[in-house]
Design brief:
By secondary structure, this protein is an alpha/beta fold. Helix content is about 45%, strand content about 15%. It contains 24 helices and 14 strands. The protein has a 7-stranded mixed β-sheet with strand order 8-9-14-11-10-13-12. The protein has a 5-stranded mixed β-sheet with strand order 3-4-5-6-7. Strands 1-2 form a two-stranded parallel ribbon. Helix 10 packs antiparallel against helix 11 and helix 10 packs across helix 12. The N and C termini lie far apart (about 70 Å). The model has no long low-confidence stretch (mean pLDDT about 90).
Length: about 625
């Protein structure tokens, strides 16, 4: 019996944004079930889902082929696959160029751009008809990619399908271009077909009744077993075999991406570690003018050893230089989160938490065992943070600095709203159903919610709206910018990931979000905005002007009894971290009198302890 083997080279994930109807995890799991040994993810003009695909491929045991579907300005659709690391870098630069031209959420590329970045890429032209337009595009493809040019053969389940494939094959042969079979996958399983139609409605801004020919005509755009693909394309054995040949040549993996943190200038003649140590001891002398306590000295020595072992000195120098710039402009800033556990951060001026007064565990911030990149969050005055952000762009260069993206995903109400509109439900009905569920719910609107509104669950459109909206929860809607997470690199950042302009002027973002860069062990610096710091800056200025009292965050009197008396009464409206209703409900019960009491109180009013039934802010035991 013939051993049937096949590799799917054209597959859109839900990171194609309102086109693909399956997550990467679902696609690779189904590929394993179907016996497909490798799967190419080819989202449109984007690599946004590639890290998720990389992780899903490892979990499923199916090899990922990195790819992209390029939509050119003349209407051509070309699948490209980098064969090695330099070719991947060229693909990222090509996408960055198109996005820079097109602006937010657009990508403008032409054949001339493709020609400039074609080296190391395998290309497949996607075309439905064997007409003069396809012939001209094949000739152009051959001129740009030479032996790496291919034409996709894909069934459309329309009349004359086999004749169309034959004509395309003959046209490709005449142009000196090889053919290859693809399935143009939009979802992992046939059950997702209706959801894909609804996504098309959302993208086109119409209802399912008026969708017409904008709907995907083929109903089987799902992953198929290798044996089934051989049955469907038995007249094109060479094109089937070519999918394996292309897969064997495209061996690039995201594991090859070697992230390099910027080489900080530091101090002349010193390595980053030596520069950090000198700045640390100089900062310690400034923080403790009456002498460095033994406890703090031991902490600093311990932290510096660990930083040296893990090679994180450049990261600390970066944060120090950002904070130093902010202070030079008298912009109030303060490090928070686990970075506050660091004595080095305190003496460098990054945080104002004195380690002599607090028993803080540095390993909560950086650990030899976890080997996770450090993550320092620094808050700046919200009205002046943009000054700091633009300084970072100018200092490190726009080819080396960008913000992370944030994936905006569907939640319960948004999913129900969009699905309901696509299916033609009335605004009143959608609003009534939405009011029955919490926006952050992961379960969506349940049957009991509809029954409480006396709705007929036997109605097909209502039934579909409830079921499809639950499927849509968690799907990416679009990319937005992270509040302030900067990724900085020594080499060009657009060699690692495409960069696109943000909606805000003079900002740019990469296509990957915080979870993606964590998975690849990239380091980021969070430059965040905090309105309360603007209030405190005004307070410090007023104290200096009217009382002659000069204070900063580190010199505010500690454990002030009047302050903690207000906190115990829950008089904390507008006070960062303890202003929520849950925090205010717990404060009179915990009765904090010291900073450490406050740390404990904030720590326990979190989703983890509450969901684990360790504590409840509104119930007394």
């Amino acid at each position: 019996m013939t051993d049937h083997r096949y590799v799917e080279l054209q597959c859109a994930s839900h990171f194609s944004f309102l086109r693909g109807a399956s997550a990467c995890e679902e696609l690779f799991h189904q590929a394993a079930v179907c016996g497909i040994e490798a799967l190419a993810v080819t989202d449109r003009n984007s690599l946004a889902g590639m890290v998720r695909a990389h992780e899903a491929a490892k979990a499923a045991g199916v090899r990922l082929i990195v790819g992209c579907r390029l939509e050119l300005t003349d209407g051509s659709a070309i699948l490209v696959y980098p064969m090695d690391r330099p070719a991947y870098a060229r693909l990222c630069r090509l996408l960055s160029l198109g996005k820079r031209r097109g602006g937010k959420a657009r990508c403008l590329l032409g054949w001339e751009d493709l020609e400039a970045y074609a080296e190391g890429l395998i290309a497949i032209l996607v075309s439905d008809h064997a007409d003069d337009v396809t012939r001209r595009r094949l000739e152009r493809l051959r001129a740009v990619f030479a032996a790496e040019a291919h034409l996709a053969l894909t069934l459309q389940r329309r009349p004359r399908d086999q004749m169309r494939l034959h004509e395309l094959s003959m046209m490709a042969e005449g142009a000196g271009v090889k053919t290859v079979v693809t399935n143009d996958v939009l979802f992992h399983h046939p059950d997702r077909r209706i959801l894909q139609d609804v996504l098309t409605c959302i993208r086109e801004g119409c209802t399912i009744d008026s969708l017409g020919f904008r709907r995907e005509r083929s109903a089987d755009r799902h992953l198929k077993p290798a044996r089934e693909m051989h049955r469907l394309f038995h007249r094109h054995p060479e094109a089937l075999a070519r999918s394996l040949e292309i897969a064997d040549r495209c061996r690039f993996s995201l594991d090859e991406l070697a992230y390099q943190y910027p080489h900080e200038a530091g101090l002349p003649g010193l390595t980053p570690q030596q520069a950090l140590e000198r700045l640390t001891w100089q900062g310690a002398a400034g923080r403790y003018p009456e002498g460095l306590p033994d406890k703090v000295r031991k902490l600093l020595e311990h932290e510096l050893r660990l930083i040296a072992d893990l090679g994180y000195a450049p990261y600390f120098l970066t944060v120090h230089s950002i904070v130093r710039f902010a202070r030079s402009r008298e912009i109030l800033c303060q490090g928070r989160g686990s970075a506050a556990n660091s004595a080095v951060c305190f003496v460098l001026g990054v945080t104002s938490i004195d380690p002599e007064r607090s028993d803080l565990l540095f390993e909560r911030f950086i650990s030899q065992e976890r080997k996770e990149p450090p993550d320092i969050d620094v808050d700046f005055e919200h009205e002046r943070r943009e000054i700091v952000m633009q300084w970072i762009f100018e200092t490190y260069g726009r080819n080396h600095a960008a913000l992370c993206s944030t994936v905006i995903r569907y939640r319960s109400r948004g999913a129900l709203r969009d699905v309901g509109k696509a299916l033609g439900l009335s605004e009143d009905l959608i609003r009534s159903l939405s009011s029955q569920v919490w926006s952050y719910s992961s379960d969506g609107v349940e049957d009991r919610h509809a029954e409480e509104l006396n709705l007929n669950l036997q109605d097909r459109r209502l039934r579909l709206a409830l079921d499809l909206s639950r499927q849509l929860i968690g799907f990416p809607r679009h990319l937005s910018q992270h509040p302030g997470g900067f990724v900085l690199t020594h080499d060009r950042l657009d060699d690692l990931v495409p960069i696109e302009p943000a909606a805000m002027k003079d900002r740019q973002v990469i296509e990957w979000d915080k979870d993606d860069i964590d998975a690849l062990k990239f380091m980021k610096v969070d430059v965040l905005a905090l309105g309360m710091l603007s209030c405190m800056k005004r307070g410090f200025d007023l104290l200096a002007e009217h009382k002659g009292v000069h204070l900063d965050l580190a010199s505010i009197p500690a454990e002030d009894p009047r302050t903690y008396a207000m906190i115990r009464k829950a008089d904390t409206l507008g006070v960062f971290q303890i202003e929520s209703r849950a925090q205010m409900a717990m404060l009179p019960r915990i009765k904090p009198r010291t900073f450490y009491d406050l740390v404990i109180e904030v720590a326990i009013v979190r989703p983890g302890p509450i969901q684990g039934d360790m504590v409840h802010p509104y119930l007394r035991r």
